[in-house]
Design a protein that fits this description.
233 residues; mainly alpha; Leucine-rich Repeat Variant; 0% strand; globular
Length: 233
């Protein structure tokens, strides 16, 4: 899939200038080494702890007008071009806040973010708080999730598994269970964990349905998925 074009955005110009200046000044090289090691070297870090980063973010966005969809795309894609992971976190938080400004046409941008410098720390938030709301707002995107669950990229498949995490009683349980079965034979830890997590989360809404599903599918689900699914039941 081709890289989505980065729209021109005066808002993104202002925001990125503030962001890079503010974040870079707050970096801590020792913490950066620790963070990169914890995240298995997926990306370099500036070394800004999360509580401090959130304070800095509030200063960065202060006075910035609400974005249009093109601004959201520009901010996210330009942040992703920066190597340090804290910029990616900023983009994810920004999208979480403004996903309601985005249409179904934003999904290719989300896919690019998911498949670039991929690790659970950004993918999971994008799945639950960006892709999920996009699908909820436009049910036609359900067909795209039906494609994503079979994608060769494990992070795209994981996103399909997790995109309903916040749906609670509006969860499409039949689709959730079907997705779990479609990937039940996957050997990767992150897929097996996602199956269990998605089921565990839905169990907060309908524990009996999850118990019944796991009981009927326990011979197909990995032990990790079963343990995660039933952890709080």
């Amino acid at each position: 899939m081709t890289h989505p074009a980065t729209p021109r955005s005066a808002l993104a110009d202002t925001l990125l200038e503030r962001l890079t200046t503010t974040y870079a000044a707050a970096g801590d090289p020792a913490r950066a080494v620790e963070a990169a090691s914890y995240m298995k070297g997926v990306a370099p870090f500036l070394g800004i702890r999360t509580p401090e980063r959130r304070v800095l973010t509030r200063a960065v966005v202060d006075g910035i007008p609400r974005p249009a969809e093109a601004d959201c795309a520009a901010v996210a894609l330009r942040c992703w071009e920066l190597p340090e992971r804290e910029y990616h976190y900023f983009a994810v938080d920004y999208l979480r806040r403004h996903v309601g400004r985005c249409s179904s046409g934003f999904l290719p941008v989300a896919r690019h973010l998911i498949t670039t410098v991929s690790w659970w720390d950004t993918v999971d938030a994008l799945a639950a708080h960006v892709v999920g709301p996009l699908v909820t707002a436009d049910p036609q995107l359900v067909a795209v999730m039906d494609e994503w669950i079979d994608d060769d990229n494990l992070w795209i498949a994981r996103t399909a598994l997790l995109h309903q995490l916040r749906r609670k009683d509006t969860t499409d349980a039949e689709r959730l269970f079907r997705y779990c079965l479609r990937q039940s034979g996957h050997t990767d830890f992150f897929i097996r964990k996602a199956i269990g997590w998605s089921l565990r989360e839905y169990a907060k809404t309908d524990p009996d349905a999850v118990r019944d599903f796991v009981a009927g599918a326990c011979d197909r689900l990995a032990p990790l998925s079963v343990r995660e699914a039933l952890k709080n039941l």
